[in-house]
Amino acid sequence: MPLLEALHSGVQDCATYNERYAPINLVSDRMDEIIPGQDILLVTVPAQAHKFYAREMSQWLEDGQTLLIMPGATGGAIEFSNILDANTNRADIILGEAQTFSFVSRIVDPHTVLLSKIKNTVRISALPAISNNELIESLNRTPLSFDLVENVLKTSLGNVNAMLHPAPMVLNAGLIESQCGGFLHYHNLISESVGSLIERMDKERINIARKFSLDSATLLEWLAEVYDAKGNTLCECIKSIDTYDAVNCATNLNHRYIHEDIPTGLVPISDIGRLVGIKTPAIDSIISMASQVCQQDFHSIGRSVESLGLSGMGIDEIREYVDVGIKQSEYLPIYKSRDLPVEDF
Question: Which architecture, in CATH terms, is 2-324?
């Protein structure tokens, strides 16, 4: 664990930064050099790259490995699992999804990363959830703090990045483009009115989670848990987080806060909302505005109920799938089971 231990020793608190050199044993673009023989694999790439990495990794995975997608955005583990299932050589692995990334971090230059905070805890779950105990037992060997939750619906529908990132970008597009950045994403771009819209988006997310009988934390509750934030509104909470002093805004709209957090965050949340009968006007407004401003149809390219393989499934069927790993369509229909021969005992 030399890298993670060095990270922990280098990030004391949000006010004081210490330089540490973290040795990395191997850097390679060859999966056959990286994956075999490893106990724990963390996939920390932008969510739109999950499909590529699932395809590339599938042939090299080995029985008993733990693979954590960090973060999974919305539906990351389900998408990853679908691709692994399509590979006939799938290994017996423990597949997990994290709600968000464990670090508040930014690249300074090709050789330097600024870590302004290690989050107090990150919610994780396995797909299927019956492997949760094995997942947490494996990840407890790392120095990171994890909170095990019911299933990947809770981590996916707890996608706070989709709440905090796209709306400030879209609603401040003119300022970002005309000034080429130079502001703090959280402290400067999330005003009272922008924060109020994000809170309404968050209520829609919470209502969808409740349809699956999930007690999802509100954005304000999450900020208090992870950053010890204080305040009655999102804007007040954001202003209380010193860690966000180190998070600058983008210099243009060609940024992952839009091109990752909308198609793999807001779009699938909205689509799952339609599936369970929850309207999402606030979320849909940001998707629509971003599509117009960026001249790209995010609904058509984003994750959907169909692309995640959940079409035709109801709430109970989806819960059963994420809990035990079996889709209703995989059960033998009753009318066929009656025709099976009965063995003598």
Answer: Orthogonal Bundle (1.10)
